[in-house]
Amino acid sequence: MSGSANVGVHVDHESKEDPALLAEFQRKIDAGELIEVDDWMPAAYRKGMLMMAEHHANSEIVGALPEGEWITRAPSLRRKLALTAKVQDEVGHGQMLYRVSQDLGKSRDAMLRDLITGKTKYHNCFNYPAPQWADIAMIQWLIDGAAIMNQKTLADGAYGPYVRTMRRINMEEAFHFKSGEDMVLTLMSGTKRQRDMAQEAFDRWWGPSLMFFGPPDKPNARQLPPMRWRMKTVTNDDLRQRFVDRFIPAALDLGLKIHVVTKDEHGFVTSKKPDDKIALNKDTGHWEFTSPDWDEFFRVIRGNGPCNAKRLALRRLSYEQGRWVRQAILNGSGSLPPAA
Amino acid sequence: MPDLPEHLKKPFVNMLLAAADDKLFLGHRNSEWTGLGPILEEDIAFSSLAQDDMAHASALYELAGSIDGRTPDELAFGRTAEQYRCAAIVEVPDEFDWATAIARRFFCNHFDLLRLTRFSQSAYKPLSDLARRLVAEQQVHVTHVDDWVIRLGTGTPESHKRMQQAMDAIGPLAPELFEPLDDLKPLVDAGLYPGSDFTMYDEWTATVEHVLGQAHLTVQMEVGSPDDRGGRRGVHTQYLAPMLDEMCEVYRLEPKAAW
Amino acid sequence: MSKLREKVDLVTGDLESPPEEDLKGYVIFTQLKMGQPHLYAGYLDAADDDMALIFAREHYGQDQECVGIWAVPVEAVSGTDAAHPASHDIGGVEMYQVFIQARRGAGHVSAETVQARSPAEAIEDAQRIHTDPSKYYSLWVVPQHLIASTGPGDVIWRYSDQSYRLARGYSKEVREKWTKFRDEGSLNEYEKDDLKEAF
């Protein structure tokens, strides 16, 4: 899942680089060639790609937590199997993306330690709670749906190792999204209680899925290094528009209502009113909608979201509990009996 | 579907449920680790094995249901605690201790390999066909868990100590896997469950002790279960009911609904 | 443990334990059918060859039906690319497995084996076979004895129904369920953004 749209990749200082090398680098990018780990690249590009892949990897393994809570409560054998496989895929994506970052010069251990001590970030949306089974359905439909839109464009990027990993990840996202759709459709075809659960979960996840693509772009986004160097290929706002153009009509046809909500500090909805901006603009062909609460977005990103502390604490526990295991396989003799 | 004699249906289904319930809860317990494993690669692998276990349970429920008319989900989610036939070893929590998780898998995986091998020789063709596929997958589980037991048993002094503690805690529960099922004898006589559990127990202890020897670990086991417990008779540990409540939390909201 | 997920202690601050070493990096190749080449699948970290194969079987081996896996330590790879410099040190003659990267950005695919006294010599030999530089982008060589391989007949891909973890296991049902809510036209429009499931 996840994706890195909202990672703040601040890339600058390119002026320090050799202009000839920089020009050749830009030529390759503009010609659609892939940059490989051993190619010359501006220091800022290396740093930016490392940060982007690391953020993406962090997001995958933290993203495994909210859904992981529901594996033991999945309501049928097939859902139980599917959710285990889905969360497993996320850990797999994390593993592959950490390798991309390792090759750019940072050890996996250093990345895990920076993550659990709060020195690096992960995707904002995993700091929201998933209090009901229907949240799992909505996460897989909306958040994975958003991730697919994002990652499809990331697979058109310029950094070879990241692009190859993204292509592989996208294969598995197809399953996540279909299974999410199936759950949402099943709930909306079900009893009143199931439909109500779906609506409540939709109210919780609509905002985070709009925020998924990151804050509104700066006016010169296309000229800034992340896009000039094809670290990303589409602006946040364009991606968000593609997302709403696909999901607003689908949600309305399903009988879901789109609300503007307020939430308490635990991420639960305290009040809601219909989003009266929802309408198809016949002139542009695009759907209009109320922007999410960007103050909330920045508050959560700074670590003050409903679940930030819990997510990190659980990852930290996993790291600390696993230490003796890693020591045993790393330093173990593997053949000699241990000292009595 | 080939016919089973009427009087053998109940014990046969009971036998399938014991196997399926063991697998379901082993997979369920192991899936608690998904996303939290000690190494990302093993997290992925452990989830894969947990899926196999739950998929095996599902296939066995389907077979049982083809005889007694219930759906796999009704069998997995729709029974009361005393109607389950699993052994105590799959019920106890591992308290997020990797050594306990591995020790549990070790005993269960070796047991399941032998049980499924017996099933693969059953005179009931739908079972022998299914079990032949499951045996091949079960071999993967045994290879995987043996590797871990040996690595941790012979790894560092700390890993050895933790593994030995886990063996001491989990080992005594393991022989309860062999608690006799109701009316097994007619199934054996009819070739539906070939072989005797006594030879199976000997095979199992020999393999288990061989691997533990390589791992420099020991285990204390005695045949039989305590008088006040018997998973195969539906008398379970205190851990099954809460695990079941958690597992069925959503299912029970609308048991008739599709999810 | 599910309770543990709910009631975890909210510990923060620096870690008490010292940093750890990473495990060894491996490149994993999977073979989809007997007799076919091994295709680049991805990387993983493991303590040794056996563990690399065990991990690879449960990760890359479950992406799609496959019959064989190779695990190659990253450090055993020499290539024409700058990331894998080839040693010229002459040793005993041994067999090298050659891998071809057809075009920039593609994954490496196993080709023939060559006999050589050093990785550099093996690359030269391979280049004599692959004379047309337009047909490939880069070459890797790996001493054959450093490739850990699953055995013939080893179970990798599972026999049990895997449809629950594949998009195609849902597509038909999902489409049917949608038709209760949406007309053909808007459904087709919506499905345009679907990902195709193919490795």
Categorize the overall geometry of chain A.
globular
First-residue to last-residue Cα separation of chain B? 29 Å
CATH architecture tag of chain B = Up-down Bundle
- The total domain count of chain B is 1
Named CATH topology of chain A = Ferritin
Series of secondary-structure elements of chain A, N-terminal to C-terminal: HHHHHHHHHEEEEHHH
Helicity range of the residues of chain B? 55-70%
CATH class of chain B: Mainly Alpha
Which CATH architecture of chain A would you pick? Up-down Bundle
Helix count of chain A, per DSSP? 12
Query: Any idea what the CATH superfamily of chain A is called?
Result: Ferritin, core subunit, four-helix bundle
> Count of DSSP helices of chain B?
9
Helix content of chain A: 55-70%
Q: Note the run of SSEs of chain B as H and E.
A: HHHHHHHHH
Provide a concise account of the structure shown.
The complex is a heterotrimer of chains A (340), B (259) and C (199). Chain A has 340 residues and is mainly α.
Q: Features of this protein?
A:
A: mainly alpha, Ferritin, two-stranded antiparallel sheet, C: 199 residues, alpha+beta, 2 domains, 4-stranded antiparallel beta sheet, 21% helix
Overview of the structural elements:
The complex is a heterotrimer of chains A (340), B (259) and C (199). With 340 residues, chain A is mainly α. Helix content of chain A is 59%, strand content 4%. Chain A has one domain: Ferritin, core subunit, four-helix bundle (Ferritin), CATH 1.20.1260.10. With 259 residues, chain B is an all-alpha fold. Chain B has a single domain (6-253), classed as Up-down Bundle (Ferritin). Chain B is globular, with a radius of gyration of 18 Å. The model of chain B has no long low-confidence stretch (mean pLDDT 95). By secondary structure, chain C is of the alpha+beta class. Chain C has two domains: 22-157, no CATH class; 164-199. Chains in contact: A-B, A-C, B-C. The interface between A and C is large, with 73 and 57 residues.
Which helices and strands appear, and what pairs or packs with what?
The complex is a heterotrimer of chains A (340), B (259) and C (199).
Chain A: H1 19-30, H2 43-68, H3 77-103, H4 108-116, H5 133-154, H6 160-188, H7 192-211, H8 225-228, H9 236-254, E1 259-263, E2 269-274, E3 279-280, E4 287-288, H10 294-304, H11 308-321, H12 323-331
Antiparallel strand pairs in A: 1-2, 3-4
Helix pairs in contact in A: 2-3, 2-11, 3-6, 4-11, 5-6, 5-7, 5-9
Chain B: H1 6-31, H2 40-68, H3 72-77, H4 98-119, H5 125-153, H6 157-170, H7 184-189, H8 197-214, H9 240-247
Helix pairs in contact in B: 1-2, 1-4, 2-5, 4-5, 4-6, 4-8
Chain C: H1 2-6, E1 24-31, E2 38-46, H2 49-58, E3 68-73, E4 78-79, E5 94-101, E6 108-116, H3 119-129, E7 138-143, E8 148-149, H4 171-178, H5 184-191
Antiparallel strand pairs in C: 1-2, 1-3, 3-8, 4-7, 5-6, 5-7
